[in-house]
């Protein structure tokens, strides 16, 4: 738990992808997240949290569906959305908090 707090308290935005192995839309998002990382580079950290292996963390952050994305800036939640997100939309959202 404390490691998660350390990660989301970075100065740069941190995008957390709550996903599940069995989730089709989650699999669709994997290459999109890679492209977002390729575009934004060091300006963003992206971490993936498997909700089946981290149920308490998913519950704490009220993740009810997968994929759910939560964007943190300096430890504060600044954006949250469930469901697949287009690459350009994601980049625009992240840049707005950079």
UniProtKB/TrEMBL annotation:
Residues annotated as the enzyme's active site: 23 (nucleophile), 26 (nucleophile)
Site (Contributes to redox potential value): 24-25
One annotated GO biological process: cell redox homeostasis
Cystine residue pairs: 23-26
GO MF: protein-disulfide reductase activity
UniProt site positions, description: Deprotonates C-terminal active site Cys: 17
Domain Thioredoxin, chain residue ranges per copy: 1-98
Entry keywords, A to Z: Disulfide bond, Electron transport, Redox-active center, Transport
Pfam family, one: Thioredoxin
Residues annotated as transmembrane: none
Cellular component per GO, a single term: cytosol
Family: Belongs to the thioredoxin family.
Protein name per UniProt: Thioredoxin
């Amino acid at each position: 738990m404390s490691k998660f707090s350390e990660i989301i308290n970075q100065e740069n935005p941190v995008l957390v992808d709550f996903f599940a192995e069995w989730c089709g839309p989650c699999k669709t998002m994997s290459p999109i997240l890679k492209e977002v990382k390729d575009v934004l580079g060091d300006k963003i950290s992206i971490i993936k949290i498997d909700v089946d292996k981290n149920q308490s963390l998913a519950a704490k952050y009220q993740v009810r569906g997968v994929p759910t994305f939560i964007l943190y800036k300096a430890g504060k939640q600044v954006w949250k959305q469930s469901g697949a997100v287009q690459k350009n939309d994601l980049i625009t959202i992240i840049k707005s908090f950079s």
